[in-house]
Each structure stands twice: as C-alpha cells, then as structure tokens.
From TrEMBL, chains A, B:
This is Transcriptional regulator, laci family. Keywords: DNA-binding, Transcription, Transcription regulation. GO terms for molecular function: DNA-binding transcription factor activity; transcription cis-regulatory region binding. It comes from the Bacteria. Pfam families: LacI, Peripla_BP_3. Residues 4-59 form the HTH lacI-type domain. It comes from Ligilactobacillus apodemi DSM 16634 = JCM 16172.
Amino acid sequence: MEKLTINDIAKISGYSIATVSNYLNGNYQKMSQKTRDHLAKVIDQTGYRPNSTARNLAKHENKTIGVSISDITNPFTSPVMSGISEVCTQHGYKMIFTNADNDQKKEVNNILSLRTESVSGMIVDAVDPNSPIYKSLTNEALVMVDRQAKELLFDTIVTDNRQAVKEMVTHMVQAGYDELYFVTWPLEEVSTRQMRYQGFLEATGYALGEHLLTVPHLGQKEAYQQFEAQIETLMAQKGTKKIGFFTMNARVFLRLLKAMQLKAYQYPRDYGVATYEEFDWMQIMRPEISCIRQDSKKIGVMAAELLLAKLLDKKSALPQKYIVPTEIILKQSF
Amino acid sequence: MEKLTINDIAKISGYSIATVSNYLNGNYQKMSQKTRDHLAKVIDQTGYRPNSTARNLAKHENKTIGVSISDITNPFTSPVMSGISEVCTQHGYKMIFTNADNDQKKEVNNILSLRTESVSGMIVDAVDPNSPIYKSLTNEALVMVDRQAKELLFDTIVTDNRQAVKEMVTHMVQAGYDELYFVTWPLEEVSTRQMRYQGFLEATGYALGEHLLTVPHLGQKEAYQQFEAQIETLMAQKGTKKIGFFTMNARVFLRLLKAMQLKAYQYPRDYGVATYEEFDWMQIMRPEISCIRQDSKKIGVMAAELLLAKLLDKKSALPQKYIVPTEIILKQSF
DNA sequence: CTGTTAGCGCCTTCAT
DNA sequence: ATGAAGGCGCTAACAG
C-alpha cells in the first residue's frame, strides 16, 4: 500500500542507496551519526517502508515460518498456534498458516506450497507424519508437533501420551474396575492414539486389540449408530460388573457420553470414565471429570523456540523427541 | 529448501527461460504443444517449483492476505479461520496470520507488520475496530469481521446479533419469566456485546443499563468472586419469582453455571438460561441448552470471498455491512 | 565513511 | 513459436 523505494529515499536524503540500505539493516558502524540521524528523519517523515519481498529475494531469507495444521477445528490446535505465534512475533518472524482439514492430499499441497514460498522453516502438526513428502525436507528447518513418525526424521514435540494414560488408567484399575475399555477414533497409524492405547494396555494388562472401542469419525452416521448399539449391549450385559472407560480425547468423550445418555446411564453410578484432554467446559460437568491436562500452548512455544534456534545454528543434529509433561486431574467421574 | 531455478529448467529442457516462464504462467498459446509437453515432463521430473518471492517481486503482487485475529483462544476463531483458509487456498492465496491476544497494542503492531509485508489485502477480527490505525488503511483491500466500528470504514461481516438475541429473549419472556438478566463480559465499546444487549433490551423492555450482570474477564479472581456473590444474592432473594438469564457467549455461560453450582442451583428448576453461541459440548448437557447457533465458518468464507473479489475489481465502493444469519435452537433450559 | 555494481529469480516487452 | 535483455527493490561485496 506504499510506493516509495529505497531509491527515492536515497535521492531525497542525498545519500546513495547503499548507505540507505545499511541504515535499514542496522549497520550503523558504516556511517556517521549525522547521516544516520538524517536518514532517520527522512524515513520517518516519508513513512517509507522497505519492500519485504525484494529484501527477501536479495537475502534468501524471509523471516517467515510455515505452519501446517492438520485440523484447525480441533480445539487442541488453538493453544498450539497461540504459542507459536507468540514466540514468532517476539523474534520478528511472521507465520504463514495452512490447514489440511484432516486430508492427507491437502497436507501434501500445503507443504509443497510452503516450500515454494521458501519459508525459513516449518512447524508441522501432521495428518500423516509418515508421508513421503517429508522425506524431501530436512531436520535443520522443521519441527513436528503432536504426532510422530515411525522413523523419527525431525525433532518432534509430543506429550507423554503413553505414560500419562498409563497413570490414569492405573488409578482406574486400583479403583476396582472389573472391566475397562479404551475408546478412540479409529487407531489407524496415528501415533498419539496408538501411544495412548499402549499406555492403557500397560496399565490393564490386556492384550493388543482387546477392549478397544472405536468411534467412527464425525459425519459417518450409520457407523456411529453401530457404536451406540455396541455401548448399549455392553452396558446391558455387564450385570454387576464394575465397568469403566477411558476416552482418548475430548471429542470422543462427548461421543461416549451421548451414547450413554440414550439409555440414561450416568457416571459414576453406572460406569466410570476418564479422558485425555481438559477443556473449560469440563468444569461444569457434575460430577467433575477425571482428565489428563496437557499444556498445549507450551507445545507451540517449544516448537517455535526450537525451530528458531535451529534456524540460527544451522548445525544439523540428530532428530530428537521432546516430551511435554502432562498433569493427571483426579475427580469423581470414576 | 530447493535450489532449482528457472534457468536450470531452461538448460535442462533446452528452451529459453522466457518460454519456461510462459509455460509457468499458462501462456500456452505462445508455444507448440510439443514444447509444452516437454516442459511439463521436465518440471514434473525435477520437481521444480518457481520461487514465489522472485515472482512476487517481478509481478508486484504477492497473493497473500494478512489475517489479524483478536484472540485465537476464543473458540469462535477456529471456524472463521477455517473458512478463510479454505477460500484462500482455493484461489491460490496464502495467508499470514497474526494474533493480538486481546491486546490493542499488539493489534496495532500486527497491522503495521502486515502492511510492511505488503500483503494484497487483510481480514481483521479486531480487538478495537475503532483504533486510529485503521484510518491509514483503505476499504479496497480490507474486510472486517465480527466486531464493527462505530463509523463503518470497511466492509464488515457480522452476525445478526441484535435480532437473534431479541428473538431468543422474546421466547423467554413468553415463557413467563418475571425477571431476566443479561450476563456479559464488560460491555466496554465492543459492538457485539452491545448489539446483543440491545436485542435483550428490546425483547424485555428494560431500560439501558438495567438487568445487566457483568462477568469480569478471565484471571481476575477477586472480581469474579464478587460476581458469584451477586448471583448468590439474586437467587437467594428472588422468592417465588421466575428468573432467567441470557449469556452473551459460551464462556460467560460457563461462568454463570459455575456460580450457580456453588449453591447447587439447577436449570430449569431454579432458573432459566439461554446463551449466544453453540458448541459441541452443549450436546451432552442435560437438559439441553437453548442457544443461538451462528455459522462462524461462513463468516470466514464470506470475508475471504469478499476480499478476493475486491482485490480483483479494485473499484472502491462504499463500505457495507454483511449479515450472516443465525439460528435459534430451543431446548429445555428455560 | 560512502558510492558502484553485480546479482537474487522471475516476468515481460521486443525482436527474430 | 522462441530468445535476448532489461527491470522489479533490495543486499552485499568491493572500491574509493
């Protein structure tokens, strides 16, 4: 929205564009205090703002990081972005944002387009961290978040999914439940789901594949009704057994509760429940929900700080996993 | 993270860079089908991607819009961004994202920095749409969202706050409530809050300033306790009167419910309640909550479409207000 | 201390 | 249908 160029400033001030450029880049040792002051005045009065596109082209660096989000409607995402954004602006970085809408193809396109934009680095909350697209990128300028790839190609910030679930479910076991179930979106290849299930198995001693209740993704109405039927059968046949559920995130938790409400089953009377994730609306549930609180904003902060640090060093170390601790909140829901 | 240039492609393919450039820009009429096919193959095989920075510089256009969000942790924000993002990628636009964290100063900085980036246009969810910073921008390349300025400087996408609240509260009046209260964050100069209060007044016939319960912003513990005390008094003294509350958004709703739960007051037995905004967690509240559903994603979509259209036309029309309709959801909460 | 100049990668007339 | 060359606004040696 402006039209002045460095050339104009040079002419107006009477100095060469090189000096102006030096001024713009803070190379004050290359000029007298007088010219510095003069330039300051001219630039201030004209309201001149250097064209960042040109600057980026010349510098091969654009102080921009690309952020690829798997699903922005996931409430987990907001705090992460908040953290990233905070750190980035602190360090004078801009962020260009893309959303994959849970679609692997879109994700690939997003990554490609970020690469085309030649961002300095990327933070990726991947739909599929195992996608071949990532083989074309390097750990020097990328940080992954949340989901991790089987083969760790990049520094990755995760929460201690397995451990946290194991702890929580151990509490449930100790509370004397005869039967426990892990409720989840389809496990697929998603590391967070698998790790959480893993923690569940370790706490309960069940074998892989057992006591697993899968909730279909949003929008699949028929499949969802099957899930409801499954819950109904389970509850109808449990007899006097004490039965409990661990849901792998808040959305799944909502699904389970809805299914339970169909027959007016209530926790903790008819069943016990605990969930991964904590959101503010859980405060008003009565009884309150036992849940695993993860510091999502911190994930964003760490990812951004790590990335910016790497961007400075340019030393390529081996990809590492960074674990953000969680907090177990015990209430009366089981 | 790539090194191929248009020059490389020219050499590899045996054509000149001009032809390659023409190919990249879809000027196919300027070349034979044969060279076109050949180029396609080379580019595909090499995985070449033109450097967008250079392209932007040459073209004086960067296909980037800036998005300034007032508070990304507000759950209203995600769907809006989702909508914006969808439209943008559809049209080959990138979005650079900034978050003001509800802080006017940060917002000013964000706007300035977006201007420096010389974005093609901006979509602004403003903390303070009346800030003088906006006087330096033009309606040709900006769309506002949600909150509107007193003096309409830009096209603005809003929901029909006043009307929707009026309708809902009218239902409450008809349900025979003796006393109704509007529960809100501090009204301040925020248009959405004021419009909603306005609708409330029109439905109830109360005078300006009456029946207004203000919830302090998050983090102000003492003030919040005052609010709780206020609710307690209200409920204790209501006698046999039928009393109802309309909360101006979901977060305020949560605050009210928490306050009510301190003395174990339940809706709709002890009080009636309805709220602006609908979120998925409301589905599991029993009884269900009467609420006003707004299509937030559509707000984002409209904003982006409008902006991109303006960017094409470059005709400056008078700023206009676009209203996204809402839906009244009646349940048993009052 | 200050100015000259050659790029950065791509687009775009203008010839051929 | 294809190529040569200048330019977008700025940076970064290298001279002076």
